[in-house]
Amino acid sequence: MNNHTEMSDEKLIQFYLNGNPGAMATLVELYKDRIYSSIFSMVQDKYVAEDIFREVFITIINNLMAGKTAEEDNFLQWAVQIAHQLCIDHTRKTKMAFIMETDKESNNVVEAVNFSVPVPLPNTTYYDSHSKIKSMISMLPDEQREVMALNHYAGLSFKEIAGIMKCSLSTALDTMKFGLNNLRKLMNEKEIILR
Q1: Pair 80, 154: CB distance under 8 Å
Q2: Which of 6, 22, 143, 182 shows a CA-CA span of 20 to 30 A to 189?
Q3: CB-based burial of residue 63 (10 Å sphere; 0-12 exposed, 13-18 middle, 19+ buried)?
Q4: Stretch among 8-22, 25-39, 140-154 having the lowest mean pLDDT
Q5: Are 17 and 64 contacting, i.e. CB atoms less than 8 angstroms apart?
Q6: Is pLDDT larger for residue 71 or for residue 115?
Q7: Mean pLDDT (whole number) for 67-94
Q8: Residues 123, 129, 134, 138: is their CA dihedral positive or negative?
Q9: What pLDDT was estimated at residue 193?
Q10: Dist. CA 109–CA 102, nearest whole Å
Q11: What pLDDT is attached to residue 109?
């Protein structure tokens, strides 16, 4: 398997399609951290992130078997795009289930839509500050949170993010700018200082 690590993604995919399962294992090993981090940052749940991570590679294998491959042979971007769509699907299902459950119990859908996680305050250590920032990122609008996750955790360029989110490059950049501004406002409101 060590000889696989020097190959391009395209060659690894060809090896896999020619019956070498170690080639897919190499692709997973190469990109697992970036793909998993981008998923986790969107869903904020370890178990859900692990399920979606597995689903990403099942989807990739199914696509490869059906003759579909990554555009421009960019395996990481393809995998993150699949992960992004699976996260959106999961979020939609979760929100809908939450709204329906709340609606049954109290007939107040507005409460469900405006639900947010309270962030504890004062005297924070360095790690507490960062965990609070992650919590605040989860409170941002979906598009802003997704752009931050794809850029920071998956390490994708804004051009790649624009492709995944099916928007223009300037829209992706603006979304990141608005997300950072909103994050700063939340940090000021919560009086979080990075030390």
Answers
A1: yes
A2: 143
A3: middle
A4: 140-154
A5: yes
A6: 71
A7: 82
A8: positive
A9: 52
A10: 6
A11: 38
Q: Which domains does the chain have, with CATH numbers?
A: 1-85 (1.10.1740.10), 120-195 (1.10.10.10)
Q: Which two tokens stand for residue 100?
A: 């329906």
The pair of structure tokens assigned to 120 is 């504890």
Nearest to 31 by CA among 89, 88, 70: 70
Report how far residue 32's alpha carbon sits from residue 74's, in angstroms, rounded to the nearest whole number.
15
154 DSSP 8-state letter: S
Dist. CA 39–CA 48, nearest whole Å: 9
Which token pair is 117? Answer: 């996680």
Q: Which two tokens stand for residue 164?
A: 């995944």
Give Cα separations from 156 to 74, 139, 175, 187 (angstroms).
11, 22, 15, 25
Residue 148 — left, alpha, or beta (φ > 0 → left; ψ -120 to 50 → alpha)? alpha
Determine contact, residues 32/49, Cβ cutoff 8 Å.
no
Chain segment 45-54, per-residue pLDDT in tens: 889 899 999 9
Q: Please report the pLDDT score of residue 53 as a whole number.
A: 92
**Sign of the CA dihedral running 83, 170, 137, 114:** negative
